[in-house]
């Protein structure tokens, strides 16, 4: 049995002040046995000292060198002592003391492998993302990294996020493998997390990685009947998005990098999902959310849960 109902994981680097606000909301969670874990990816701004001094009950793992967001999220999930791992960004705030309790309860169906927690991008408007439209289990194709929860045992069994993606598209890449294992992503109903979208993010770097990684995901996971069309659609969508957002150069270099990885991906990393899985994923992507009861029979049965030893 897990030592906690859930672990709230925050991976961080050089965002001490944003992290303080995120931790204040994490340690205030009520109604469940919650561990709070911070993994510091080589900060140089005193982040580790702040956590140790101001939040002594928070579990801190500090590193002197950077491994990157995806790698640290994988590490943190392996270190977590909760059965459910709730990931939030260091520039996000849990708006309610009940967020974790409500989210843990939404794993009541054994075929739910992840919950997409509602959130608002505060600096971009009041729209609520990832919120279930009505009671029940509503399945979607993916979740946003800033606000999601995972079954720890399933995540570890599937190998976690793909680290060579560096950042961006790791969520839909994992979610497609999750679906192929018989588990869905469920829309949550908790009070929306407030995400403040740190201005230190690089738009050009983000666009490069988004379109490169979309192609890498296609090469490795999309079944052959759909692969050529999917690659063509990514290229066209990327060029249009790059022009629209003023990041055409970054998008072109990202697409070129992704196309250049085709030989290695096809020869070394290709493990396409089942065709029935991809059909369901397409339904969720273009027609979701969909009630789990409508697609349950189309998915493989989930493998029995395992209980990895606590670290």
From TrEMBL:
Regions crossing the membrane: none
Pfam families: Glycos_transf_2 (PF00535)
GO MF assignments: glycosyltransferase activity
E.C. number: 2.4.-.-
Biological pathway: Cell wall biogenesis; cell wall polysaccharide biosynthesis
Gene3D superfamilies reported in the protein's UniProt record: Spore Coat Polysaccharide Biosynthesis Protein SpsA, Chain A
InterPro entries attached to this UniProt entry: Glyco_trans_2-like, Nucleotide-diphossugar_trans
Residue ranges annotated for the Glycosyltransferase 2-like domain, each copy included: 7-121
Keywords: Glycosyltransferase, Transferase
Family: Belongs to the glycosyltransferase 2 family.
Protein's name according to its UniProt entry: Glycosyltransferase
Organism annotation: Patulibacter brassicae
Biological classification of the source: Bacteria, Bacillati, Actinomycetota, Thermoleophilia, Solirubrobacterales
